User: Which sequence fits this backbone?
């Protein structure tokens, strides 16, 4: 069976430019849906998330506990490859999940922790308090999420930790300006914070 010959490309010439119109072979296989049959995938996704929202608290509790255990392993064994990798993965998972689950401040704190792990030249020389404050902040944000004042407290905590992490990384990387751009770049984590 021979294929239908594709329609030719149309070229319209104007004094200053040309407009090239390419044929659309998909027009033959597409059909229009009736108005009553239209599907809204965004509405379906939002409905699915709403159905799962009752699970978000327990999922975040699990993720926060995983970060705490990873940090405890680091305290016990130091920053060996396995402990460092698990702590980074735990923080990275929180960074990715927390905003979706309704914990944007936890996502920002986890992002800050990821930046420290990723950019510090020697993790054993990072002040232990910096790690401890990040881990404790995630725990506090997740556990105190329902309190009336917690969003403003969490936002301020997140801002201070990010500033502290940036100041530390800026100081240890001051002789490596090519690294400073990545460290000081704005976070890609979704935020409700001003």
Assistant:
């Amino acid at each position: 069976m021979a294929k239908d010959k594709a329609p030719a490309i149309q070229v319209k010439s104007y004094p200053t430019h040309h407009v090239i119109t390419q044929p659309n072979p998909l027009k033959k296989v597409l059909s229009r849906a009736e108005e009553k049959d239209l599907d809204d995938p965004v509405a379906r996704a939002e409905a699915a998330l709403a159905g799962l929202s009752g699970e978000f608290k327990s999922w975040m509790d699990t993720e926060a506990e995983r970060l705490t255990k990873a940090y405890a392993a680091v305290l016990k064994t130091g920053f060996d490859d396995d402990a460092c990798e698990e702590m980074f993965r735990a923080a990275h998972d929180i960074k990715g999940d927390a905003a979706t689950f309704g914990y944007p401040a936890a996502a920002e704190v986890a992002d800050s922790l990821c930046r420290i792990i990723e950019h510090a030249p020697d993790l054993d020389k990072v002040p232990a308090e910096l790690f401890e404050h990040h881990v404790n902040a995630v725990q506090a944000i997740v556990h105190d999420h329902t309190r009336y004042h917690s969003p403003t407290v969490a936002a301020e905590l997140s801002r201070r930790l990010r500033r502290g992490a940036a100041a530390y990384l800026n100081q240890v990387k001051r002789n490596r300006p090519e690294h400073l751009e990545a460290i000081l770049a704005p976070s890609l984590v979704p935020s409700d914070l001003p």
Observations:
- The chain is about 60% helix and 5% strand.
- The chain has a mean pLDDT of 82.
